[in-house]
Please model this.
Amino acid sequence: MDVVVLVKQVPDTESLILIEEDGVSIKTDDIKWVMNPYDELAVEAALQIREARGGTVTILSLGPEKTVETIRTALAMGADKGIHIFDPATNGSDALSKGKILAAALKTRPFNLIIAGMRAVDEDNYQVGSAVAEYLDIPQITQVTKVVVEDQTIKCHRAIEGGTVVIEAALPVLFTAQRGLNEPRYASLPGIMKAKKKPIDTLSLAELGIDPETVGRAGRKVKVASLKFPPERNTVKMIKGESPGEMAAELVKVLHEDVKVI
Amino acid sequence: MKMAKGVLVICEQRDGAVRKVSYEAVSEGRRQADGLNTDLTALVLGSGVVEMGADLEKYGPDKILVADDPNLANYSTDSYLSVCTHAIKNQDPMIIITGASSQGKDLSARLAARLDAGLAMDCVAIILENNQLTYIRPMFGGKVLAEVNITGTPHIVAIRSNVMAITESPRTCEIDQLDVQIDVPKTKVIDQKLESGEKVELTEADVIVSGGRGTGGNYDSIEELAALLNGAVGASRSAVDEGWRPHSDQVGQTGKVVSPNLYVACGISGAIQHLAGMSTSKNIVAINKDPEAPIFSKADYGVVNDLFEILPEIIKEVKKIKE
Model:
């Protein structure tokens, strides 16, 4: 079973996000870059499938030079090889362009299964996995919390509001990982050492046969006009009282009579 | 070339009931159609859903399209996409609105790729100014709000649950049944497990009572208060990591992003990744023993107290009101 995992490098979720002076991008100086948490689930799922069924796990990532660190992290977790699409012309691409670029890299490579995180925690688009599946003309199963892979088929539990649906499809399939799928392993020290020797291919847009004019900032269908911070809340009103009973009475009174939410 | 015009809302139903987010989508669709001086069409897909058109009527569509077919009983990306794509080709809408539910995210993402159209995912506001549509959507788990514009048509907008107002705007409307022809879908639903109908879904709840590390894993009072307020129980990442609550309860940047009317955070310190998931709540109450807890800086009302002491008192007070 040849599994490809789509991985993205994103700001750590504990990072403070600040807006650049241009008003449309974020300050990147003090950010700690990590693997998208949902992609960690995807890598772990791929490793478990390889452990059960044999085969290979390839990490595919699109991004700037430092993306290599995230690919290495996945290799240290146990993936076999990496492909890094690195081309300045891809900077600022929107989800559709990213999907096209990633799909182009996959068109010439064998795979039975593609796994991605259900969303990247930077742009929160929930979109690239579906776009890749569309461009490769394969089924998608998104927001998966449990997976069973058989020879020719895959069964996925997909999280929906208030429950789960179990979906079956013939491979090849692309599925996206939701929390609950597994607990991603940490890279071990020997894993980190081994990862240094594992191959990472670097690809440019020219090698993928993609016209740089159609992607990147210029190719965006969804243009960011501005980034703003959410409106600040008013200063917190502390509920006072001599006892828990008094405080509770005051709080419930405010919520019932003033705010009218209960 | 004919100009794309009109607003199309793709509605979601489950077991014969229109989902709340679809009423929000139709209401928002009506507002935008009025602003653009154009028509609103609502599309409903499913099996045995012809009657459901009537449920949507009072929210103001000019036309309702119904795709009723046994093969549409369960949501499948392929089948739904094929029906939607067909309807979109006929309607040539300028904007397509759907809910950013689990189904809406799956459908809209694939639809965007199929139509080569821009998608504003998890949109929280649509602004029409000087004939330009701007979509506001959170990024970085809500740490920033992006104002985005979409080039080309159609624009696809998946709206976040519980944010846009449901407004009645009744009018007589035409209901058309679509001629549905779909291939065998590539994915097959083989089982469905739904929690009891009484449980309120986190992203749709008007009230959420949420617990963190401070609960020590004891959610009894939190559950009682949530049930009393007809709300849902939420949890912080650390509570989920401890195994105290299922992943589906997690609120935060790596969990669900929620916007209830009332969010009560109990024993949650307020890590930045949790705040990202609940800061769009309309009213936030924080209960924490530690007066320095960062959660208080994001709350409207704060109570410095042990949650095990105060929650039973709050429950007593709420019961008094309910009587």
